[in-house]
Amino acid sequence: MNIVFNHATFRERADMLSFLRLCRERGVGTVSIWGDEITKTGDSNALAALRDHGLKVSGYNRIGPFLPDYLGRAEAELERAAHFGADHVFLFTGGLVEGERGLIAAKRRVEDQVGRLLEIARRVGVKLAIEPLHPMLAGERTVITSMTSANDLCDALGHGIGVVVDVYHVWWDERLEAEIMRTGRAGRLLGFHVNDWLLPTRHRLTDRGMMGDGIIDLKAIEEIMRRAGFRGGLEVEIFSTDWWARDPGEVMEIAITRCRQIFGDRPEATNTYRRRFEDRNSIRPS
Amino acid sequence: MNIVFNHATFRERADMLSFLRLCRERGVGTVSIWGDEITKTGDSNALAALRDHGLKVSGYNRIGPFLPDYLGRAEAELERAAHFGADHVFLFTGGLVEGERGLIAAKRRVEDQVGRLLEIARRVGVKLAIEPLHPMLAGERTVITSMTSANDLCDALGHGIGVVVDVYHVWWDERLEAEIMRTGRAGRLLGFHVNDWLLPTRHRLTDRGMMGDGIIDLKAIEEIMRRAGFRGGLEVEIFSTDWWARDPGEVMEIAITRCRQIFGDRPEATNTYRRRFEDRNSIRPS
Fold it and tell me: Do the Cβ atoms of B92 and A286 come within 8 Å?
């Protein structure tokens, strides 16, 4: 059971160099990194630290949002990602642009934009990764809101692009098993992000849970990923003001323990999730 | 173009009797009503007002959440809905119960529970309505998060149960057209709720938009509904602290105007939605 730490989980209290050192101290050998954090640290310092600690890079975050000038900056970003040895680069489509309503026209636009990025990515030698985001972010931060939609996009564009499964975004989808298997058959399962969905969720962006604190059937999804042929690690990506406030090293240790409990060969019992409030069904709107 | 007003859109500043009078004054002949508001007004007062104003009842809200004692109260509620002449009664499944993770087991439980309710509903002569809710409410307030899931449930249970399409919950779904057509072919399209999705959405329950203020392609969805054979009205259901704070009669007039602009035979231009903030793509988490 390999663990990958995504810097976003720790970045509020650990800059890139601290983050890499903390990973190394805990025996975590693979990380996902962010371009803006590299810039803060300096490319050569960041590269040297990765090399000195013997760390591998899984995902590079990220290309997007796809505003009118996105393509001008994309080539340099993709080259940097390749230079850092990243396995894949995340595409962050962003939401609708002026004049768009619904997702149909926006998806056509994004398919065209990703196609252009893919030509560059193939040339510089890095894979592109589509991560479908939760429908609550549709139109605002993404136009790809399901594994189905991500797979359709990959089918249309051919080799060099794949899908990252983040449980937070797709756990509710009745098509999940079928679509993970479809992704696996196409040889394009690039990553597996773990975290949890809390009851209730207080913020659409910054209230993700630690694995085991929420209602996602994480073990069941991991088993589907393995059956679909995924051999990569469990990437811990938790956007959470609660966890950001805590000591990064401690958060790493809790995450490692939870992964062992939930995904280990002989899973230990984990705490049953608690609801944050008991009155979740009492609010009137539906 | 018939309009149906749902009392929930106005209830913060209009009790049931005021609501019915305001509808009547604006020529709206069909309403959807709530059991708790009937109780506040008194059943006989509420019935008399409906009769005096010549109003028809579309939906009765609602049966649920499906807590352990739901069935004991359900028969009386269904009888009351039939007594009020409601076309259909909403099922509000509520979220997970103790020991459930993910949605698979919960859906099996809910199918069993709805099956028991359906026996009662058939006996008292009222239809049950499943309204799939947005996946951001999955596990917390519902276990039915797509039209696909709602249709599958109806297929399993047979006659006397149908689906209400609320654009807020399903607009993002690439399966929407196919699933609305499937619902129509099965003769189980019971209602069509309109409102809008705002950018950004500030609250998962109480920040719906007035039609035209958001990013949903309302006209396109309405055209699908008509092609699928739906002949009912446009039901205005807006859970919104912003709109609840305004004068209910004024909100009705704005809603009527917007429906005319968007859904009329010769739609007038509507305002392009504005984003509430310009920085919607700048927040880091994805």
Answer: yes
